[in-house]
Amino acid sequence: MQGGDGLYSRMTNAQLFKDQNLDKELEHKAKKVTEKFTDCLNIVANEPSLAFFRIQEHVQKTVPRLVEQKHEFQDLQQSIQGACFDAEYATNAVKAMDKSQVHFQNIQELIKNAMFMKQQIEYEQDRRNPELLDQQTVDVPSQAPVKKSPGEPSQHTT
Asked: Is the pLDDT confidence value at 7 over 70?
C-alpha cells in the first residue's frame, strides 16, 4: 500500500495546495469586496456632510450680496415712499386751490366793485369841484396840462 499511500499523499498534498490557492484568491477577492464596501459606506456616510459643506459655501458667497441688495431696495423704497407722499401732498394742495376758486372769484368781484366805486367817487369829485382841479394843475408846474390833439386820449380817466 505504499504505492497507494504515496499517491494518496500526493493527492492530498495537491488538494491542499489547491485549497491554499483558492483560499488566497478567495481572501483577495473578499478583501477587495470589503474595501469597496467600506469605501461605499464612507461615501454614503459623508455625502450629507459634503452636501451641507457645498450649501454653506454657496450661502457664504451669496448672502452678503443679497444683504446689500436688500439695503439698496430699502433705500429705494424709502425714497419712492417720500416721493409718493410729496405727490399726494401736492395733489391735495391743488385740490384745495380748486376749492378756493369760489373765494378768488368773490375777491375778484369785490375788487371790480371797489374799482368801479373809486371811479364813481372820482367822477363825482371832479364834477363838483372843477376849479379845484384847475388849481392843482396851476400850483404844480411839473404836472401842467399838455395840449393834445383831438384823437389822443386824456390822462385823466373817468
From this structure: no
